[in-house]
Amino acid sequence: MSLGTTWRWFDFAVRNTLRNRRRSLVTVSVAALGTAAILVAGGFALSTYESLAQMSARLSGHLVLGQPAQFEQDEDTPLQHGLDDPAALGKALRADPDVRFVLPRITFSGLISNGDKSTVMLASGIDPDSEFAVKGPFLKVVAGDVLSSGSKDAEVMLGEALAKSLKAEPGTSLTMLASTTEGALNAIDVRVKGIFATGTPEIDRRAVMTDIATAQRLLVTERVSTLGVYLNRMTDTPGAQARLAAAFPTLTVQTWLDQAAMYKSVRALYNIIFGALGAIIGVIVVFVVANAMAASIVERTREIGTLRTLGTLPSQLLRSLSLEGLVLGGCGALIGAAVAAGISVFLYLVPVQMPPPPGRSTGYPLVVSIDAGLYAAVAVAMVVLAMLASAWIARRTVNRPLVAALAHT
């Protein structure tokens, strides 16, 4: 079929959709609302995935290096599966062109006491200067200041709920107790430098952060638990993992995704919820378009019979009626995409805060991403569904016997 013939059929379809403008307007409106709803929901899911991925990568590092047993077994004593000589290992890692930071970490548990009350702590030994520069907005300091290197005193930061339980504030002296790597009990006096909130109350009840040197002095070791490797970009992760795994065959190199149980759970849940929502909206749009086309075709049964009498083939009529579905679905998709983009821009200009999700104490900004791939996929799906609905409704009428079609009332 030539381009000119195609255009004439398309123009014929547009004219037919304008014959009953009120019905076409309702159909386009429903398709637009369906498109906008899918794009807003999908954009929200994509922004959530992106935010959780960034948060997970900042917390653990894009890559995490450790002894294989560190990821597979529980330790009998602290740092049983730790890394020796982390400084030399970090220097070797930074030789990779994609590596931006290498942060050593020690994780251990023990007790923390104010003299009158002792409670369980889950502590982390960190490199303060680089750690807080990398974590940035994912750690909220509610009192005092963050840790820094070179302090004369042993200092800690406490989770907000833990500080409240110990009646501690910046400047308060506490005592940390933990088992050393030899199994003996050791204690060290520390001063509270700051109080932080992660947004998860269960973590804030036990969380303690101190610098690497203090943690190693308490545990009587030179080891660290793992090394967090921060790359220039998230997309560098697979390539860097392959290179580092080849360069350090005795170590295990995990990605942030291996460490991100929450990200995987939320993504699986949202995929089910928003997938079902999109399917339901798609079915509604199909039924609305099919209903509109059915009413239009029934009204035009004698006209269709006349066109067939004049020599128009059923396949040509079917194509024309499918094009009417394309016009209705296409207009609805374009308007819906514009509405969804407008909502995304509005939320960017006028931030809206969401309430805290289950298990967290802080909310988060409502952000709806504008993803070109998602917009294209939804628009194409909406047009295809509208065309299929039109063709499905029209197939019986265009193949109806001419006498029955012309006698239709």
Provide structural commentary.
The chain is an alpha+beta fold. It folds into two domains: 2-55 and 263-404, no CATH class; 68-250, no CATH class. 55% of the residues lie in helices and 19% in strands. The protein has a six-stranded mixed β-barrel with strand order 2-3-8-5-7-6. The chain has a two-stranded antiparallel ribbon with strand order 11-12.
Strand element count:
12
Domain count, please report it: 2
**Count of helical stretches:** 15
Q: How much strand content do the residues show?
A: 15-25%
Q: Could you describe the largest sheet, including whether it forms a barrel?
A: 6 strands, mixed, barrel
The structural class is: alpha+beta
Order of helices and strands: HHEHHEEHEEHEEHEHEHEHHHHEEHH
What is the rounded Rg?
32 Å
Strand order across the largest sheet: 2-3-8-5-7-6
Give the % helix.
Answer: 55-70%
- Mean pLDDT across the residues is 87
Shape: elongated
Uncertain stretches:
none
N- to C-terminal distance:
34 Å
Main location: membrane
Subcellular location: Cell membrane
Membrane topology: Multi-pass membrane protein
Keywords: Cell membrane, Membrane, Transmembrane, Transmembrane helix
